[in-house]
């Protein structure tokens, strides 16, 4: 299967066209997930940013439903993997089997060979199996028996996991978590939405009635559009400042990686585009900071003891980090000068 | 214990440093050697006592013992055991020395020679201070208190020698005290534990802790203030500051000081007083003499390269017998006895008393006044002349020119002649003198030739406003310009007479002034005068006054030194002793009085003569008030200017893009005018900056972590809830700013100034009256900007200073030693 290059996909779409396509997807998903527009848009932004999504919440709030609704709304290949402790890496990536007719080994593609891969309960699988996703998520390719197979575009892994019941689970390794662009929590629906859900879901599963409103080609063009969104130097500086701040924050043992910076900016582009802008604002980065940053960070033992979650730490950072100004330092700030783009923290000394 | 030993040594050294001001008193340095010995003995005794861990009282006993041993060794009476152990005779000797020192203090003027009593008192005092300092520093750990005994040492030269206590010894003493404080503090901190900087780094011994930086800065500022404020306050520049400023002591008079009888620069004082616009009564003198010659109080008879200098007088008490020249009668010398009463006002403050020459007996003067028969001055080391009233008998000598002409040249090896004819080598003066005295055979003729040279015919005139000074170059200048006042005339005449090989000196005193009622003359600071005295063999010092009479109110001439400028026929009395009436400037027949008045006293002349000349004071007040108002208005004006600049459309940075001609679909060309994005950006930034400044002015929160959109939303939500129009306007401003900052192309064509006006109006309405007033008069945004600029500059300075210091500290010997010890 040959794919278009990004040049062929083209640059910015006309504003209306992008709006129509993206709104259709969001509206479609919202038929299934009521009252969660922000979450849905974020999920779509991750798709358009060519990232992967980790949905983490308690059972029964619609994690899998969101994943499946997103997958169904786009007319593309969708595969679902139920992660279990006995799942093997070859189940994910594929395996070469001996074909007696041709007297040769033949590659049977695994579950990742699809546009959208829904990995349910990803932390139930053994680390061995989880690691099978490492290569395909980052490099968008699978190597089996020394042969490398390219994956299609768009390619997105939507994984769910349950943070409460940790018995019999294998927490995702740091390398794996870093590959997920964003982690979102579903949260309980508000009472009205829940009431509407009871009405709608009572008789028939709305998921089965969901029809695709878009296809892989359209999504590729949307991605091409997102890639062209303008990012000012000040915004880039702000992204770097934000990431640097996590590395220097005293509450954090491990800060965010450069890959995170890249992914955050990419997601911010997608958010800006979904918002109808062709430029990124620091507001986008601020809104994305918790979903994009928090799941990659490891708090110090002290912070853990103080029950400070990484979400709270990141929110605090965003609240304290001054905006980089294109011009001179604003004279109105009563805070001490932090230098150019320095985080307002004492550097940690080993 | 080693810290104690160290501190003890520092205490001893600091005591010695604090004794440095004593160098101003003694002629030689013997006292210092003895002080070192005494202090060393005290310190050694203290160290030994501490070695035995004795209590404090035992340490004090040991120190006193050490002091006694050292004194015994230094000032033996002859009956000691092993030269250091005192016997009863030793203490008797000490008592004698103490008594003698009182006498010596009274009779000796500074700088004093080494006399045993004075040296003993000095050694005893320094030793006592050493004991006190040691006890306070090491025993009681109160080194700050140790400054008091140290200050006591400094007060000694100040007491005898107020005028010109040199600043350097005081600085040395102060450095010693600071050293003591620092040592004690370092020791204290070290005992407390590790020194740290606050950022988790230890501080080496050689480093100053950054935590103390605030203290250091405070100390520097305090010191600077303490030095600068007195300098700024008028009338407080006496003493140390005065001598720093002018390099020489101040003279007499209101702001002057009771200086010592010697060392005062009478010339400087003279010109200072003559130039004062205020007339102050200084002396009232009543005499039985009809036409007295000048009242005198000082003599400058030491001629150095920098001019005539006053030497310290030497003499005996005035209460005793004074030489009476009237007992030996000489032909041609007429001596008459008179009695005079002098009343000195509170404004004349010096350690000399004005008297007529050759006093013979004093009444009403205490033991502390002395008479120098050579200089003929009355002086004291302790009292000053302020408010003194005294009566004395004196002899007035009058000489005929013939008698003076008969005087023989002094033998060349006479000490007086050798001493009083010294002149620095100025060939031009020498040549002039040789020229003048060519062919004159007697001493008197030579003197007269030089004296007559200073006549109006030779172009000499009187003016007060000339450079003061009597050094060789200045004398030369005077002889060339021929303009000067009494100082130059007196000094030049004395110099030239000396060059002729005849002893001469400059005398200081009062002319007879112009205020006379009966026998009483009232003399003011304007009557201060200087003239020349020439020594003739067998006769003594004879006064010559070369200054033009019209410059000196109450000028008096004598038969042997007549007024060279007086026309023979108009002044029949010229040539007879004493003609004050004629010589009085206002009575001068052929001089315009007005000119003289002006030359004499420009200040008084214009002040009293023309009342209109006295400028009213209110313009100054008004100008001051206006300046103050202007200064107060500066922030508001600045704010206003800022707002106006931002309100104007930004100047076009770039020329507008030329209209691009597109071929439209239907073939008709569509002209689009490209708006300049830079300009739109600048406009948006200006509007946003103005909004932020407005927020600061109206005391609304400004958060640097907020994006423009968030700020605009917050304002619309919190501050402008009531006003939807303003809410829309502020959102527009926010959007414009965010587009200007972050988007490819800025927002154009929006009415930003109007939106800004709306928002400003809504915000002003919301603020209370006080906030509005402050925002108008003293806008916080401008003040804050300035404050931040100052803070930034100072922090940059501090940082660079820190870098520099760190680089310099690399060469600190303590650091090098510490690193070597660590190896």
TrEMBL record, chain A:
Residues 245-316 form the ChlI/MoxR AAA lid domain. Keywords: ATP-binding, Nucleotide-binding. It holds the Pfam family AAA_lid_2. GO terms for molecular function: ATP binding; ATP hydrolysis activity. Residues 52-181 form the ATPase AAA-3 domain. Residues 324-350 are annotated as: Disordered. Belongs to the MoxR family. This is ATPase.
Automatic annotation (TrEMBL), chain B:
Residues 311-337, 555-611 are annotated as: Disordered. This is Transglutaminase. The chain crosses the membrane at residues 29-49, 56-75, 118-137, 144-162, 168-186, 218-241, 618-637. Keywords: Membrane, Transmembrane, Transmembrane helix. It comes from the Bacteria. Residues 478-548 form the Transglutaminase-like domain. It holds the Pfam family Transglut_core. The lineage of its organism: Bacteria, Bacillati, Actinomycetota, Actinomycetes, Micromonosporales. Coiled coil: none annotated. PANTHER family: PROTEIN-GLUTAMINE GAMMA-GLUTAMYLTRANSFERASE.
